[in-house]
Design a protein that fits this description.
Layout (H helix, E strand, L loop, with lengths): L7 H17 L1 H5 L11 H16 L7 H15 L2 H18 L7 H18 L8 H15 L6 H22 L1 H6 L4 H17 L33 E9 L7 H10 E8 L3 E8 L2 H8 L3 E10 H9 L11 H6 L15 E9 L2 H9 L4 E4 L8 H9 L3 E7 L6 H5 L8 E4 L5 H9 L7 H14 L1 E7 L4 E3 L2 E3 L4 E5 L2 E6 L2 H14 L4 E6 L5 H14 L4 E6 L7 E5 L1
Parallel strand pairs: 5-6, 5-7, 7-8, 14-15
Antiparallel strand pairs: 1-3, 1-4, 2-3, 9-12, 9-16, 10-11, 12-13, 14-16
Length: about 575
Amino acid sequence: MLRDRIDGQNLQKMLIAAAAVVENHKQQINELNVFPVPDGDTGTNMSMTLLNAAGELQKLNAPTLTKVADTAASAMLRGARGNSGVILSLLFRGISKSLKGMEECDGVQLAHALQGGVEAAYKAVMKPTEGTILTVARVSAENACAACDEDNCFESILAIAVNSASDALAQTIHQNPVLEKAGVVDAGGKGWLYVLEAMLSVCRGEEIALSSVEAPVVVKEQADFTEFDSEEITFAFDTVFIVRKAYEDIDLMPLRRYLDSIGDSIVIGEDDESFKVHVHTNTPGDALNESQKYGTLELCKIENMQMQHDDLASGRQARSTDDLEQIEQELEAPAKEKAVIAVPEKKFGMVTVCAGDGLAAVFSELGADQIIEGGQTMNPSTQDILEKINATPAEIVFVFPNNKNIIMAAEQTVALTEKKVIVIPSKTIPQGISAMLVFDPFGDEAQNVEAMNDAIGQVVTMQLTYAARDSDFGGASIHAGEYLALDGGSLFGNDTDLFRLVRKMAEKLGDEGYEFITIYYGADINQEQANQAASIFTNFCPDAEVSVVYGGQPVYYFLISAE
């Protein structure tokens, strides 16, 4: 008998299973990546995004449908890695909004939720490309909605969504010239099909090994409360409350400034309808009264930390409002695991992404406040980037992703923090360095954005790495382990001789007459090899100033910046 509708626990099992299935098939998804460069592959990024949600879902006990959808969407947003992970999180963000307030979901509601996910994803992607995960999700949702006129069974509509996704995926090979030449379907679309198939399997009563899910492990150290005196607690009352907004786009910055004047440890998380405040203060009543100017008080929890300290120091159980804990957690997701936001000490701050101790030193010297370790082989999550933004003591934070597959994850942080975030869309390390070189701490915001974007457009990046897989790309037959030279985002050449490619790169830049060439050499290159590369560039580019800098980056033997 077909399942007409599902509840929260059903959806919980479906999504955990989806994470397990994508994890089990991530290498198959990775192998659909056409470009042979060893990067943060689609399957890996989608798997890590889903596993972040699975870890949170496993903590829930008998959750409602709304709770499951909200938890999954929030966890995926913060754990999103790479463009594929971000789009996946956007699909579930739209699904979550469509299911809000529901206890069960039937076929019609499922179809509308899938459509809501598609609308959220297309809205967020500036230039949607057909023949991708977006196409597969859109066609699947459209056919599910069309079938609702005749059927309202959840299982039936989900089966139609799966079959439609499979058909749409098969067509992606003809919708994208690169995929057609390589003879493969879209990797992200394949990942989305695995998600839907896993959900359908669980709906039909099949068991999927949940041991495949490696939930994030959080290690917490127990503080020794005898090490300090309760008199050291400046603000005694740990105050947490939730307010339903007077209107959706209400500005909470004035409230934050007021709370900062009467306390510390301030965290404000919000969604479209409500906001949650955490503050340590000696006058919790004042905090509550001020917050009611912004909406209607719903829930409140106030605990005396001095008394809790005394209890713990004496070996007693600390007094707590435990009965409010579950309610607090349900609205805590937007501010979850969020470090206290650094108080602005200056107007501008900078956060950058790179891999390699040499490159990290370069960015530090250029004034980066925070450096996120990551890049081509490991795309940082939205949460990783958000934490560094919040830790930056500035009003306005410029973020330099330095990788095209990290830009979308960085852009998702804009709505997750009270700081103003401006993502400078640097796609390579040299672009990020050039942008930071023109930054003027005394200039205004618009001037800096314009100057940094102009700088990105002026620098040429060439890179030398290796092929992670066999491929036929751009008419060239590429074999795993060969050296690859990249010019911007395109394949420049492949060879079994590293320095033969270096000479070809130097010859090209010499013919184009660049004035400044910087060679950043990686972890697998020694000083002698770096000097050899510099000599080659000096010979072919006699009018250019050639510099050699230790980058220490993995994967890329040389990063070449030319201006």
